Amino acid sequence: MPGNPIGVQPQLAGSLERGAAGRRTLAGYLFLLPNFSGFLLFLLLPILFSLVLSFCEWNLLTWPPRFIGLQNYGNLIADKAFWHYVFNTTFFMLGIPFGIFGSLMLAILLNQKLRLRNLYRTVFFMPTFTAGVALLMVWRWLLNTDYGLINKCLTTVGFSGVDWLNRPWAARFAFVLMGFWTGVGGYNMILYLAALQNINPELYEAAAVDGTSWWDRFRHITWPLVSPTTFFIIIISIIGGFQSGFSAVYLLARDTNSQEAVTTIDYYIYENAYHFYQMGYASAISWFLFLFVFVFTLINWRYAGSRIHYD
Amino acid sequence: MTDPAKVLGPLEDTAAPPSARRRRRFLALCSHSFLIVVAVTMLAPFVWMVLTALKPPGQAMQGNWLPTRDYVVVDGRERVVTQRARLKDGAGVYRVRLPAPAADGAREIEVSTDRLIPVGGSETHFLLTTGEGSATGTTSVKLIKKLVPEKFEVHYDGGAGQEPVTATMDETRIITRISPQWDNFRSAWTMSGVFGRAFINSLSVCILITLGQVFTSSLAAYAFARLEFPGRDKLFMAYLATMMVPGAVTMIPLFVILKSLPTVLNFLFHTDWFGVQLFVKFWLASPVRTFYAGRLVGLDSYFALIVPGLFSAYGTFMLRQFFLTIPKDLEDAARIDGCGAWGVYWNVIVPLSKPALAVLAILTFMGAWSDFMWPMVTTSTPEMQTLPVMLQAFMGITETQWELLMAGTLMVLGPVIVVFLIGQRYIIEGIRLGSVKG
Amino acid sequence: MKYAALAVLLALVVTAALFLRTDRGLGAKRITFAMYKWIIYDGLYTQAAADFQAKWNREHPNDPIEVRYDAIGEDAYSQKISAEIVAGTVQDVFFPGDYHELVRFGALLDLTPYIEKYHAQAQIDKLYPQLVKAHRVNGRLYGLPISLNTDVLYYNPTLFDREKMPYPTADWTWNDMLAAAQRLTKRDAAGNLVQSGLMPCDYWEWVLWNHGRFWTPDGTRCIVNSPEALQALQFLHDLQFKYRVCPTFAQQRDSNAEVTFINNATAMYISGRWSTSHFQNLSNVPWRVAPLGRSFQGRHLCMMEGNTFVISAQSKYPDIAFQLLLFLTSPEQIRHLVEAGESIPIHYGPEENAYFLNDPKRPKGENAAYFSGMDDATVAMDADLHNPRFTAAEVDLALLRFQADFDQPDADLPKLLKGLEDNLNAIYAERTAPPVKPSIPAFALALGLAACAAGGAVAWQARSAQRAR
Fold it and tell me: ipTM, 2 decimals?
């Protein structure tokens, strides 16, 4: 049963208790120190710098940046291209629940005493660890209209091939599929596997004795007990979802007919910063995005906080 | 893993009657078949990648999986075929088997090869075009016998120093053979630059980043998860918040910070040692070779490549979530035994979180290995480049020569695979240890 | 375990002490120059760096320098240059990527006073005047050209011989080209292209060759929606979808013209001289060059394009950098580039071009094809496509949108072309309009909303934390 450390020893009182608490505070800060100092210098400082930049106009080549107040944000709201890309980004995130569910299912399947499960795990993880140039080249082949594997499969089954990278909606669908395929056997699955291992098997035995179905066991035992991991994965996926898509667009769809349909906000930020020489505007987009994701995460935290069961 | 007391997962049930055991075996079979299908879907593209690295030029984006070359035997010698095209009047006649009997009851018919289209590069399965004009369609047919072989216009290599030759040939004289081009790897190596040095750079930088990040993140995650101090949750919120800012815009500010770091440090310490250039001099061997090792601090240094990567909000977040799932009883037991915060951390938390630490290590290593943007921007000399930077430049040169690109990419992927296989074992160990408790 | 760690640490310290050396870098002056990475440039410019260093150190023994050449990957080239300019570490001489942007933002050194100081006008006068004019901004010069390319028709004579067809000549019209291409196109049993008749390499040159124009001479209005442009684009579209003598542009992303030409899978294609660097040293690739011929509007409008080197405004040694720039654009250096197959000579005059026009390795008179149309009163330059008043990337994005629709078999070209013109005019109007001040109520509202959201979130969090305690 959970108990807090101070409550375990009720006889500690007064200065001893305060001393222990004080030592723990010091320990807390010391443990945090190495990470925090780097965090401050290399993560926080650049971020604050970019916040200042979002109120300026900067073409990277001249110094100093020119302060223009909220004009970047004003332009942002009126920018049709930006909202088009917001749509694209949100569309790609529709695949997240499928990915989470898929990873959990695969983790449950692999949690059994199956032979070859190590082999399965390695194979499922392969898309993740080759992520990058290699994988995107492979997908470029897969999605090739004339010779790609996907179209080949479709034609042998009887459907006609789809012009994946040249038609907007086909390209969007292809990107969602790509995201699902790459992520389903990856880190999320491993995290779920690790979390499943922490579940006390006696709970399942007790439930089996009571004669509950496997769906009920899943809903009442497994799902709640992996909820911290689920919560983590949801947050990370959404945060990542808003910030991703750069390499996919860069390597698959850049300078093609479907570039507009699959450009995400991340790529638009890059374009503005380095191709259009509008670093201030790019920073404004980033911070606008940040605000949105931050509020969303807080809502999620509050909502999920009441539903997470910590041991 | 034969201890019956180790029940793993919701689908296992050891103390069960025979019918349940049969049911269990059936479930296992279902699981296996499903997993195999998924595994094949995952594996197929990689098989293609390896095979494409071995293909001769021009075959990468075609339908065949295996690297093949066509050969003809002329004057007792084999010559490589460079092109094979259909002749207008070179059609042959094949006997094919229809899927269903035709109007006159015949199951096998003889058709001209003009009307046959091979399915997926196959030698035996074709699509037969039927009908005329607006009523054309296709049916799949299977080859029974080639009655009259088709003729092709074949262009083949004339041999050393000779012009290519054109001839009309029966398809029976054209031999298709599997011919892997191992040379592609060598070409990729030589074309891409100083491969060896970039490899060493990548390896050392990634190992250091991985070790450092796992260490600092786990310390911070422990502090956030189990230690209590004022401002803890608000600080964690700040960590979380930084993850939500896209990296593209923070790169330039970080770049400016790193560029000014030597100046600032020199100013603070009243010296000018922080901007020195480092060299490694192998005076043992002869001739003496000197290698440039970047500056100490600042741009174009190992410091710039490694240190910003040591601090990650993502790692802290992930480990914190994981540490929260570790039951507090163990911690309490350790504290009762007299451990301080460090003791609890080192003796209880770390051994139990091997899977999560392994995941973070793998993740960090892979992220650092394939990071292209940051090393490209911070390094200016070729000696300090990492592999992805070189590969990116290589991509620009090779454009559509997929075989070389795949070969280069596979070489860059090698260490990642090794790291993954090593990290895998830790995950297994961690899972086994984890299930002993409870 | 602790001892193992200590032992490792000790070993590292000892190794470092033995082998590590430091250097304050206070040695010779260092001049750097950068170009995007390409096999030809790597070898050539590394040698040029060594040559210039030797030459300078010989002429100035009291002022030694060190010259270094950096090859930067093409994909992220402008990003790297921008980052270096921010840090102040940009190379002294470099290929600019976006020339007009860099000029506009003051990142480049004005070369005019240096030309006067070092009496370099004579060398610059030997360059083709159109090239120099393209580099002038407000009458001042900020960069010098280092290569030149025009468009010619490459063809494979062996494939022509097989069909017993005559070779292309300067009098060929585009319809002649099409007829030849149709005879030279072959497909395999599955209907896939085995041999393309004619591979067109890009969209917009066709408009320019057909005397279509993008912008008015003063650059204020887009006029691409013209009958000439439509005619050219229709022809290009038909090549791919109606006559099907080549793969579509989308398919060409996966196998481009040079690679297929080397594999004898393309009979003709149109490109600049830089294409020959891919295959001029391969013995089994038969190739010839013909002038581009006549478009529907008469002789094709010659399009001249080339690379530039500029000097950074931050350069610590502008005089030495200027000498390096002159060295790199001198006829001797350009000759290396020409012989490697990357460029045609950029200086006019019989003695500059004789080695090229009379190249013994090519059939007599063939290399004159590269100069076809250059003596016309009007030639097209890259700036005709990109308006210097806004960033090249913005124009490219508008063109990309057009291309996406163009690449469909059922594209409605007149409508698309009108759309493109309107689009570019709209962008121009936006860029040259005075900046709009955000309305006070709008941004007060935005600020208020943001504050409410943040405040509400924080308060909520605090309340739930309190409740949990």
Answer: 0.79
